[in-house]
Amino acid sequence: MTQYLDCVIVEHNPSNKTIDKSVIWLHGLGANGHDFEPVVPELGLGSEMAVRFVFPHAPQIPVTINGGMVMPAWYDILEMSLNRKVDVEQIQKSAEAIKDLIQREIERGVNPENIVIAGFSQGGAIAYQVALTYPQRLAGLMALSTYLAIDEPSTYTAINKDLPIKIDHGTQDPVVPVVLGQMANDSLTKQGYQVEFNTYPMAHQVCLPQIKAIGQWLTKVL
Length: 222
Known about the structure:
The chain has one domain: Alpha/Beta hydrolase fold, catalytic domain (Rossmann fold, 3-Layer(aba) Sandwich). The mean pLDDT is 96. The chain has helices at 88-107, 122-133, 178-190, 208-221, and strands at residues 7-12, 21-26, 51-56, 60-63, 69-72, 115-120, 140-144, 164-170, 194-200. The protein is globular. A seven-stranded mixed β-sheet has the order 1-3-2-6-7-8-9, sandwiched between helices. It has a two-stranded antiparallel ribbon with strand order 4-5. It is of the alpha/beta class. One of its GO terms (molecular function) is carboxylesterase activity. It is an enzyme of class 3 (hydrolase). This is Carboxylesterase 2. Keywords: Hydrolase.
């Protein structure tokens, strides 16, 4: 029996249709699945869309850079340098847990081509790992204020080579410097992925103009 992560579920379905689209959206370090819940009504999605937003809660684990304090985290943060050493094992474990959630959406009747994987900060690193290595075609990947933790093209699946990828980053981000978002964009573009890279004059956060643009992008890819 699969043990699924606990999730907050928000449905955008004004017309009470059968849900046929899903967005699995991962929060950042120390937050939880409620973090992006208030964003859904602000996306401006059309009344004809029937979308299930799945906001999973990360497991509680000790985080090295916070003195080993136990908190919601997708993986341990070992150091804060630009060329940071990453907790590959836990990243892959969290990615598998998200792939289980994708499978649950498929079992609920959503075609994988109608599933977007999204993540903010630490959650974005997991979103990259999930979408780039997933064995079935997805609808899109949205990486917000994050970085490409495991850039191993040999593990990426060919079926998602033309996956629409949206990378957003704040130019004044003190937590994940914008150069890391640019590096992910450069690496994926060089590999032939369709990347849309946008920056906003903000810190480590989201802003209203960005949220509106996210809504338009979701409408396009879904």
